[in-house]
Amino acid sequence: MAQSDLNRRTVLRRAAAAGVLAGPAAGLLSSCALGDDTSGDTSGKYEGTKSDKNPLGVKEDAPLDVVIFNGGFGEDYAKAHEAMYKETYPKAEVKHSAVVEINKELQPRFVDGTPPDFVNNSGAGQIDLGGLVAQGALADLTPLLDAASLDVPGKKVRDTLLPGTVESGSFDGKTYVLNYAYTVYGIWYSSKLFTAKGWQYPKTWDEHIALCKTIKASGIAPWTYQGKHPRYMSWPVISTAIKFGGPQVAMAIDNLEPGAWTSDAMKAAAEAWYQIVKDKYILEGSPGLDHKQSQTEWCKGNAAFISCGSWLESEQKAVTPEGFNMAVAPTPSLGSGDKLPFAAIRGTAGEPFVVPAKAKNERGGMELMRHMLSMKGAKDFTGKVSSLSVVSGAADGVTLPFGLTSAVKALADSGSNGFNWVYNVYYRKLERELVDAACGEFFSGRTTPAEFLAACQKGADLIAADTSFKKYKRSA
Amino acid sequence: MRHGKYPLLLAFLLPPLALYGYFVVSPYAQSFLIAMTDWQGLSPAYEFVGFDNFKRMIGDEYVWNALLNNLWLLVLLPLLTIALGLFLATMLNVGGRGGRSTVTGVRGSGLYKVIYFAPQMLSVSIVGVLWAEVYNPRSGLLNSALRALGLDGLAKVWLGDPAYAFWAVLAVMVWANVGFYVVLFGAAMQSVPRDIYEAAALDGASRLTTLVRITVPLLWDTIQVAWVYLAILALDGFALIHVMTRGGPNFSTDVVGLRLYTEAFGDYKWGYASAIGVVMFFVTLSVTVLSLRLTRRERIELS
């Protein structure tokens, strides 16, 4: 009783916190939570003189306010980047803070117009990027992208990045977000298990189903999935459809085109994936497991395949048996008519970093990004946190764990056939709530492929018709 | 002396009242204001949109679905918790039949009291995490126990199946709350004169008859309070559900509190979320007033 009362209050208090923090000096009622200042105040920013060594025109002694999400990557990598910045600008004072819940910490500061200069907007408390962009709260990163790289001679920052990096942070053609870590999405398996059993990762759908049959006969469930977050399974379905129908399948979904989810490619993909549901190739009880529980079942060898991104290896570090040797592979091809080859895999930049539009030291924030995007900064990141960065070639010569090595190889094999989609960035709700629920029903066997796609389409139409969501379009 | 009293009273009353006004009343009042805007919570920019948010809510099937779940909770949670609480309290306090003419609880009632009350010591999030593991379909306590008993057919996917998830969550809510009401009802029973129970026992009344004919009427005030508390709890349910299912699968355990939270912290529609909050404020208020009215009865004097 007492506790739940408290929790109820906590929620209300959270709702109120923004208001209380935003304007303690303002009157009790008069627009506390809403803030007072509506003008886009650009004066009072720190600005220095531009030069070859200082292409962004950073004021050398301006303080830099940095907020880092203290999660899977920790904060040490960021401290290293800040140290690099201090080396370049010894007179600058860098204020570093690492927080777990970005939204609670920063929402009041955004409303108040006093945000930090540099934010690692990540984690469960990530502030919705589409919302931030829609409300003009982020600085355009074009100056950074067009500045010279810190230590790759003769190249602009833009040209040192892996393909898709700039696009992943762009909204209506403008880049507001620097996604720093590169993530590969695919199907994971234990190469130790597969070698021991003499199984080959399947390249075609028929091979995949045949192998599932063999795996099931050996007493192991072919598949499991993150049952309480079933959207993880939307990734292989959409990937299969894109490989079958080409990148425009993803483009249509991202642009909320009518019928995007019920296209022929999506139908073919959903029909194919329905096989693993119908033939009971999914570990019993999977729909009731959360991501940790299902991934642990997989690590225990109770299931052979699982869909995930390349954070899986570090997430499962504590429970992965010695020599498990997890590896990632692309989704199997539906047939010879596929538009993209088998090796095509979904890779995308993630882990968003932003510079708020109202940051006092906006130029300094971008300059810190330029330091992160140097070869030295990126190599240091990859070495410290065992993750790929978006700087191309920065993983060369760094010793990586088994799973990440396989991800690097998969990316190289995929080459220019790599693909991605961003509707989940534009419209968080569509993936996290609507497609998520539809996937849950589909992979528990309660809906048919047609019903599944109709449910996804209904969600997309709902967003499309809702004027309160700012709409974004992409053409590349 | 009379005059000196007020400065002292004010000195004690004003600071807490000011704090209450600033931290409780003012945010409430502000949410009414925000509910009329399209504020998105990340910049000071907003526009007044009148009752648009409320109109939108009427057409929002997810809010209706969540509200329906709340209403089910509103009916079931108080009913089950109070029934179970009364039954257990009776057994612990007047259910014993061992010692002839004395009115006592069943043997070992002290131990049971501790066991029933234990969940009350745990925070809601711990209860949620605990039960999420108990309901784990593969290695959870519940399915393991069922399988050990040979009842494999009863082992379900629980929180992963829309047919069971709601009931599974409801069961946890009852489990987490019943202990408090066992103690509450138990304390109320202690104030009922023993001779009433003795007389009933002499007349050969069964335990059930004693419960329905004697205990419930005499405890009506307490039951009424319990009903109001549980009704408010049923209209919330946010914390536990947020930890256990996040409203899934397929929105089968979604509640209005969770909808509000998702609209605000997920999609940054603070105006709309505030409108949901305002509606819930009135729903909770009406339910409270209504249940106080409906359960009003003649008081029974005990002495």
SSE map:
The complex is a heterodimer of chains A (476) and B (303).
Chain A: H1 2-22, E1 64-69, H2 76-88, E2 94-99, H3 102-112, E3 118-120, H4 129-134, H5 142-146, H6 165-168, E4 170-171, E5 174-175, E6 178-190, H7 191-197, H8 205-217, E7 221-223, H9 234-245, H10 248-254, H11 264-278, H12 291-299, E8 303-309, H13 312-315, E9 326-329, E10 346-354, H14 362-372, H15 375-385, E11 388-389, H16 402-414, H17 423-426, H18 428-443, H19 449-465
Parallel strand pairs in A: 1-2, 1-3, 7-8
Antiparallel strand pairs in A: 3-10, 4-5, 6-8, 6-9, 6-10, 6-11
Helix pairs in contact in A: 1-3, 2-14, 2-15, 9-11, 11-19, 18-19
Chain B: H1 2-34, H2 52-58, H3 61-93, H4 109-121, H5 124-134, H6 141-148, H7 165-190, H8 194-202, H9 207-218, H10 220-234, H11 238-244, H12 256-266, H13 270-294
Helix pairs in contact in B: 2-13, 3-7, 3-10, 3-12, 4-7, 5-11, 10-13, 12-13
The whole-number mean of residue pLDDT values of chain A reads: 88
Classified in CATH, the superfamily of chain B is MetI-like
What percentage of residues of chain B falls in helices of 4 or more residues? 55-70%
CATH topology of the largest domain in chain A: D-Maltodextrin-Binding Protein, domain 2
Overall structural domain count of chain B: 1
| CATH-level-4 superfamily name of the largest domain in chain A | Periplasmic binding protein-like II
CATH class of chain B: Mainly Alpha
For the terminal residues of chain A, how far apart are their CA atoms? 54 Å
* DSSP summary: helix tally of chain B: 13
Task: Give the CATH architecture of chain B.
Answer: Orthogonal Bundle
Mean pLDDT of chain B: 88
Count of beta strands of chain B: 0
Q: Uncertain segments of chain A of ≥5 residues (pLDDT<50)?
A: 1-31, 37-41
The total of beta strands of chain A comes to 11
CATH architecture assignment name of the largest domain in chain A? 3-Layer(aba) Sandwich
Query: How many separate domains make up the residues of chain A?
Result: 2
How many whole angstroms does the radius of gyration of chain A measure?
23 Å
Strand percentage of chain A lies at: 5-15%
* Backbone shape of chain A: globular
